[in-house]
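Encode chain A's predicted structure.
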Amino acid sequence: MLTSKAFIAATVAFAFFSFYALFYPLYMTQLKFHDTSDLNLLTQDNSTRWFEPKVKVAFVIVDGLRFDYLLNYENIDHDPALDNHKLKKFNKAYFKKPERFVVFRALADLPTMTVLRVPCFMTGNVPRLGSVLTAFGALPAEEDSVPRQLYLQNKKSYFSGDPILKEYFPKYLESDYKIGSFNIGDWTVDQPVHTYIDKKIKENNFDFLAAHLLRLDHMGHNTAHLASHQVFNAIKDVDRFLVHLMNKIDNNTMLIFAGDHGMVKGGSHGGGTPQETNTAIVAYYKQGFMKYQHNNRRLKKIMRSINETDDQVHQIDLTPTLSMLMGLPTPFSNMGQILNDLYPVGDYLPQVHCPNATTFDAAFEMQLLHDNHLNTLQVWNYFKKYHEGQSLFSHQEYSQVSYLFQQAEALYKAAQTMIDQSQQCEDVFHKTVTKAIKQSQKLSNQIHDLVSTTTPHDLVIFWQAFVILVLVGISYVLLVQYLYKTKDYEHVTWAFP
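Encoded structure for chain A:
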């Protein structure tokens, strides 16, 4: 017959196993493969291992930034009570010199929680619900990321603001992050961030400078009313700081700011309303962007700002874009696609010489082709390993993605053949490049949609874990009652110190 000690030991073992088996997948990010992002392992030629560095980046996360704080947009249900809630200084600068700006309408995936949205900018992946534990310091993120790649490439990166980003990637960001993120009544929360970032801008000794502003989100939560004077003042504060950075950065620094989520009129977020999921990604570069200078109209088909499309970009698209801009390997678990709109003005593959005005376009297109192909290889590599490790996709789903990749590869090889045969100045080359990049974008979107649908399984796991742990608790109560009734106290003390 099973003794009391054996029963207690079995119950403890059962509880531990339940916790490990059911909660551990939630702690783990979707990357379980410690890959080095060495893209040269994937290519069959001697092409560059990763992207060529183009600019330094100052990146600002504006917590709670609704798109309609930025610009009026007809496809978003705008509340007239918020008409004055605008980044007015930004608007003035934007309409004065639009060639220096690129604006995207960005989609915040569900749930619209800061702790799940912030890491996606750095990893290019869709965090699982268990990532909440990482955000509160329970575990560091083991996923490959932009900060990790900056660290591995000996680049200088600094951060200030909400400590979430630092807690996700504690090894890789030098930070002055003694910021309280839970006092929603603190309207001064961003002031030390402004001071630190302004100091780093003046020193101008960075490759990547990041900030996370909290005041706008805090005032929304604190007042539970976005039309409040406190929220209005928070928007003015954000507006002043962003325009200040635009004026202070040098000609080789690109400013990018983005919202992690929006907010409903009552000052909350987490759901899937357009007010919560519609946010923005904005880039500013004093020398301008290539998209405004090329002559090939077909390239507009691969541009995705509000000037070209009503579609939203994904927040994860910022990850390979940051890698492209700073010359980093793309993080291994990235599913995003390069935002081709953000190529800064510069010389691209200058050895191209066409007999007419298409020389400039051909050089730029060759760069686009090269970079998008590298990202496609990485995205496909991740999807293959993720499928092998998780087996979450059906044969049909995997085959569909595989077919998209094969098409993208065929188009890339066709374009590469034209380059080898010095046909890059011909119209057929321009068409092929556009098709190849469009196919790469389809591949990325398909993989994002497939992987995103696996995250709801986390809710099932949570409920399973909760039920089993409740059953474990009940078994303890029944066990204690049994032992006390049978006067078997000495066997209880070691199990319940």
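The first helix runs from residue 4 to 27.
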